[in-house]
Amino acid sequence: MEKSPSPNTSDSHFSFTINSDDDFNGHRIDFCLAKKFSGQFSRSRIKQLIQSGNILVNDVLVKPNYHLKQSDLVKIDVPDATPSHMKPWDFPLDIYYEDEYLLILNKPAGISVHPASSHSELTLVHALINHCKNLSGIGGVERPGIVHRLDKKTSGLLMVAKTDIVHRELSKQLQERSILREYYTVILGCPAELSGIIDLPIGRHPAQRKKMSVHSYKSRQAITKYKILEKFKEISLVSVHLLTGRTHQIRVHFSSIHHPVIGDDMYSPRSVYQIKDLKLQKLIKGLSAYALHARTVGFQHPIKNIFLTFTSPLPDYFENILNYVRE
């Protein structure tokens, strides 16, 4: 395949032809384009562009599962960002860093990062629209500025891009695994190895579509590095570094090795009843969030060319559990 220009605000119309020796020959178009433009567009964004008619093959509309063939001419027309229909939300953002290119904020548990078809509640994106005049449009209308996400019940640091260039560069760093992402979590019990790597592919659960699984027949590589920081009688405090960024990765991985994240009502809803200390059990039952916090993020500033690192403290409900078991 001939090298094509990267999509940007000044060059949003381009095309390329599939050759016989291309790695993409015979493969799905959504997979191929997501790989070709890794760090620029997600696979879901590629799918949106195909379904909206902004990506054509031989001047004909195709489906995301279309398999590319030799001599296929792929034309891509990236539309300009459209104004968001979402109403601004005057919500106090806990901002750790901000300049004209990006911002780093500390997301509380209990608020979704962006709207989804399953809910119409106010989200972090609504608050960002209220705070910022401009946000990157790469994520589409529903996810302006969002470089990566955290689950609704997960707290911690989040990167937000204000320009498309910064968004692409930060996404590229994520793809290259050069961004430092450390989480703190509390898990049930303690693994036999006090430090290690969980290397189990993750994909959509074969029966429950809202869940992810290490037993999916369509999975992607997922690598989680961990270290036990404090071991208690029934729970452990763990430092986790993500080497990949799959949906629910930390929760799925620790559940798969039978040490689920405390408070995870999706993957281990009854694990709390394994806790014999009744006071600790009551503390855990009272959680409305996961004991999972995105504590540290570090990255190369795409414009200023300096490495920035930020760390946020654990939420009170997280500390309350640790303070109790430390007594």
Question: Summary?
Answer:
The chain has helices spanning 29-36, 43-51, 124-131, 164-175, 249-256, 278-285, 316-326, and strands at 13-17, 55-57, 60-61, 73-77, 95-98, 102-107, 155-161, 180-188, 195-199, 202-204, 212-213, 219-220, 223-231, 235-242, 292-300, 307-311. Residues 1-11 have low confidence and may be disordered.
Describe the protein in words.
- This protein is an alpha+beta fold and 327 residues long.
- The protein has three domains: 13-77, Structural Genomics Hypothetical 15.5 Kd Protein In mrcA-pckA Intergenic Region, Chain A; 95-176, Pseudouridine synthase, CATH 3.30.2350.10; 181-296 and 307-326, Pseudouridine synthase (2-Layer Sandwich), CATH 3.30.2350.
- It contains seven helices and 16 strands.
- α1 (29-36) packs across α2.
- The longest helix is centred in the middle third of the chain and has 12 residues, at 164-175.
- The radius of gyration is 21 Å and the shape is globular.
- It comes from Candidatus Schekmanbacteria bacterium RBG_13_48_7.
- Residues 27-83 form the RNA-binding S4 domain.
- Keywords: Isomerase, RNA-binding.
And the CATH topology of the largest domain?
A: Pseudouridine synthase
Largest sheet: 9 strands, mixed
How many alpha or pi helices? 7
| CATH 4th-level superfamily of the largest domain | Pseudouridine synthase
- What shape does the CA trace take? globular
Percent helix, as a range, is 10-25%
The H/E string reads: EHHEEEEEHEHEEEEEEEHHEEH
**Radius of gyration, rounded?**
21 Å
Quaternary state reads single chain
Count of all domains: 3
